[in-house]
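User: Sequence for Flagellar basal body rod protein FlgB below. Tokens please.
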Amino acid sequence: MFYDLNVFKTAYAMATHAGQRQAVIARNMANADTPGYQPLDIETFQKAFEKSDRQVSMTATRAGHLNGATGPQPWAEYEVAPSGDPNGNGVSLEEEMFKAVEVKRQHDRALTIYKSSMNILRSSIGRS
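Assistant: Structure tokens for Flagellar basal body rod protein FlgB:
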């Protein structure tokens, strides 16, 4: 009855997106001194979720229910606009640090959504 809930799928997709974006940011920072390296990024979770043509609906748990939504979509990396560094490197450590903080907040938000949803489910079955 309480399996395959959309709120958990969304929280999982948000945490997964944050992890993938953090990996891209870490790679950018690791190549901050590599001549000619251009930084990459992943679009924000909100934009990726909106463009996925995902229909949020009830999940089918019995034959008489409507069909549920499709699974999460992978996110594509894209190249960030280059900066004017003399060696052709486009990485700005300051920008990457700001992105890393934003990603941490996104991951924390996903965990909070998950924990709150679990507390609601526990309350509904009479557990604390």
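Residues 68-73 have pLDDT under 50 and may be disordered.
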